[in-house]
């Protein structure tokens, strides 16, 4: 059986690794997935997965591409010192040291971190709510909106639907 943190971590990989995919149908059948999220997961399972690395590059790496870093969305700059400083405290509280080769404010990293923190829900001192509300939720909303625009590769359009559905579910869980 799959758990919600598994979905967050798997979705994080989709935004971190060009061409990454998974068994989305297994997540669609999970009893915790509400109908909207389930529809997105079914669309993701049915989406063509050919040339995902090319689609990823066009969407996220091209000069006018969709930004996956919170700094870029919030301030228009990559690796904004203020944004990174806020996240440093969250990583420190979680006891995690992010890979120095990947921006710590990258959507994929933040999804992986949230999945990790949700697995440790019995530790109330962890900044799970702050990570989600102040950092991940606004970034995920921006990315999901951009992925919903016409002309986006069907796989990534469906990934945007799943991102929006997972964000809504997380808001309900942490609400």
Explain this structure:
With 175 residues, the chain is an all-alpha fold. The chain has a single domain (4-174), classed as Orthogonal Bundle (TorD-like), CATH 1.10.3480. Helix content is 65%, strand content 0%. The chain has helices spanning 4-16, 24-28, 35-46, 52-61, 70-75, 81-94, 107-119, 128-147, 154-174. It is globular, with a radius of gyration of 15 Å. It starts with a helix and ends with a helix.
Count the domains.
1
Number of strands: 0
Q: Predict the CATH topology.
A: TorD-like
Number of helices: 9
Kindly estimate the percentage of residues that lie in beta strands according to DSSP. Answer: under 5%
Q: Could you spell the SSE succession in H and E letters?
A: HHHHHHHHH
Q: Low-confidence segments, ≥5 residues, pLDDT <50? A: none
Q: What is the CATH class?
A: Mainly Alpha
Based on the coordinates given, report the CATH architecture.
Orthogonal Bundle
C-alpha Rg (nearest Å): 15 Å
Relevant terms:
9 helices, 175 residues, mainly alpha, TorD-like
Layout of helices and strands:
Layout: H1 4-16, H2 24-28, H3 35-46, H4 52-61, H5 70-75, H6 81-94, H7 107-119, H8 128-147, H9 154-174
């Amino acid at each position: 059986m799959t758990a919600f943190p598994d979905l967050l971590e798997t979705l994080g990989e989709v935004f971190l690794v060009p061409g990454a995919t998974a068994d989305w149908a297994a997540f669609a059948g999970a009893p915790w997935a509400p109908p909207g999220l389930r529809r997105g997961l079914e669309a993701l399972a049915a989406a063509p997965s050919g040339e995902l690395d090319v689609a990823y590059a066009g969407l996220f790496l091209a000069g006018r591409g969709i930004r996956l870093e919170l700094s870029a969305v919030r301030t228009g700059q990559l690796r904004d010192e203020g944004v990174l400083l806020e996240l440093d405290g969250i990583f420190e509280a979680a006891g995690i040291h992010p890979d120095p080769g990947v921006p710590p404010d990258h959507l994929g990293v933040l999804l992986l971190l949230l999945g990790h923190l949700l697995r440790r829900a019995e530790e109330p001192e962890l900044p799970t709510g702050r990570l989600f509300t102040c950092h991940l939720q606004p970034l995920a909303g921006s990315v999901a909106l951009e992925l919903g625009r016409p002309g986006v590769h069907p796989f990534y359009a469906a990934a945007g639907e799943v991102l929006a559905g997972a964000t809504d579910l997380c808001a309900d869980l942490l609400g």
